[in-house]
Design brief:
Helix content is about 40%, strand content about 15%. It has an eight-stranded parallel barrel with strand order 1-2-3-4-5-6-7-8, surrounded by seven helices. It binds 4-methyl-5-hydroxyethylthiazole phosphate and magnesium ion. Its cofactor is Mg(2+).
């Protein structure tokens, strides 16, 4: 896949947003320059069934308008039903090669990893990209596990230099540059964008940090 699509990967579901409307937040984030979006509808009060499908379709349409890939977390059947651009699964979400078979070769498959071994397994099984983390402490995921530290990004890049990869977990505007300099294709964030006072501005600022760290060009 095109690594540049992973530069600023925004993840959200309705349960991450308090009173905010997901489509409003997504639109602001898209205006601010996110390069990928993952619908991750989890936890207490998460939408299900038709309500979730409708939301996914709306997210997909918005993402299409901005030519940003729309990825569904966990739910392979939902991803297929709404013809999402891809699906993202964790270590516990089933066999990676089976999911690849189910979605076909044209769709993006992302896999969460916590070690170099995980990343090698995911790559061999047909992942287009991996998430590596949690790099730092995060309040956005229950049982996220002990932070692996940004050094793991470099270790994964050294072993799998061609594999697109995003760092995830506790990444703020201040920490994003470090993650990119370790060799990540981009950063995946929930709270740095979803909880920002000004979502569009937060996305724009983060994108600037990432561009500067990866190219040396100030935006
Ligand atoms: N997977 C590992 S950490 C995490 C996920 C989904 C949560 C990331 O959220 P935040 O707010 O950017 O730390
Ligand atoms: Mg999962």
């Amino acid at each position: 896949m095109d690594k540049s699509k992973l530069q600023l990967y925004f993840i959200a579901g309705t349960t991450n947003l308090g009173d905010r409307n997901l489509l409003d937040v997504l639109q602001a984030a898209l205006k601010g320059g996110i390069t990928a979006f993952q619908l991750r509808e989890k936890g207490e009060g998460a939408l299900q069934g038709d309500a979730l499908k409708t939301l996914a379709e709306q997210c997909k349409q918005l993402c299409n308008e901005y030519k940003v890939p729309f990825i569904v977390n966990d739910d392979v059947d939902l991803a297929i039903a709404v013809d999402a651009d891809g699906v993202h699964i964790g270590q516990e979400d089933g066999d990676i090669a089976e999911v690849r078979k189910k979605i076909g070769s044209d769709k993006i498959l992302g896999v969460s990893t916590h070690s170099v071994t995980d990343a090698m397994t995911a790559s061999d099984a047909g992942a287009n990209y991996v998430g590596v983390g949690p790099l730092f402490e995060t309040a956005s995921k229950e049982n996220a596990g002990t932070p692996v530290g940004p050094e793991l990004v470099r270790q994964v890049v050294n072993v799998l230099p061609g594999l697109p990869m995003v760092g995830i977990g506790g990444i703020t505007e201040r920490k994003a540059g470090r993650v990119i300099r370790e060799g990540a294709s981009g950063v995946a964030v929930i709270s740095a964008i979803a909880h920002a006072k000004d979502v569009e501005q937060a996305a724009r600022a983060m994108k600037g940090v990432i561009t500067l760290a990866s190219t040396g060009v100030e935006m």
